[in-house]
Fold this protein.
Amino acid sequence: MITAFVLVESERTALAKLGGRLQEIDGIAEVYSVTGAWDFVAIVRVARHEQLAEALAENIAALEGVSRSQTMVAFDAFTDLDLDQLFADGS
């Protein structure tokens, strides 16, 4: 599984609705509104790099109200949770 953290800055006029729109994108598992320089953190969990590229370039970047974004791809996870089991999609 590929996990990425996407920091999203919203235009002020889109702030109220953008979190819900982000959540509707395939591959986005969670969306958090946050304090600081960014407005949202979206957690993307996908099976293939092509799915990640689609979520980022074709979906998040194309959303009306997204000013800019920054993506960090996780190399490893340190958790007691079995993330593969939690997010298994049969791929």
User: Anything to note?
Assistant: The helical segments are 15-23, 49-60, 83-86. The first strand starts at residue 2 and ends at 10. The chain has a mean pLDDT of 90.
